[in-house]
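Deliverable D4.2, example record:
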Amino acid sequence: MIAPTRREGERGAAALSLLTVAIIVAIGIFAFMAIPLTDASDAKAKSRSAADAAALAGVEYVKKDLEIALTSNGWMGSWRAYEPLIGGGATSASSYAEQNDGELVGYQGPTPMNGWESYAKVRGRDVEGQENTSEARAKLDLPECTVEEAEPTEPTEPSSPPAGNDEEKKAKPEQKLTCGGTSFQGVDLKNLPASLISQLIDESHARLIG
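Output generated by the structure prediction step:
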């Protein structure tokens, strides 16, 4: 009776060994198949990140151009008026795409005509050299600005009578610039204070929209 029992034990051990080997082989096959999928997924994620970075870089470039234009020209009546004074940001967008292991293959800079939106298309490659592309859009939200005459202030008595032509001595009416719900009283629209320009730029937000 001992021999049959031993044989049964050996058969059970052999079956367990085969099952273990089968499990190990299955895990190996799954891992082998999953690695390319993971690489492809990582490559797509990287190209998407590169596209996002490129689109945002284009908007940020235009934002800086607007700051320079406001400093040089003051308030020109509307954001649309600054279109001839801003660049498209393509070089900046391309640089950021490359920093994220991508190549910029399509780009449109933000302008008043497209609602201050940028578009970037970036091409990337996975570890096997397969190409994939991603697209992204970003938008520059600018504060709405209006200009109106400032409320008159009470006149003060001059310490001495003014000399010269009275017409020449008349001050221009003060103006009030209202942007994003904040009013700036008595500003020189042709020569905006640095603090006002800084506030306008700070209230201009770049964001991804898809």
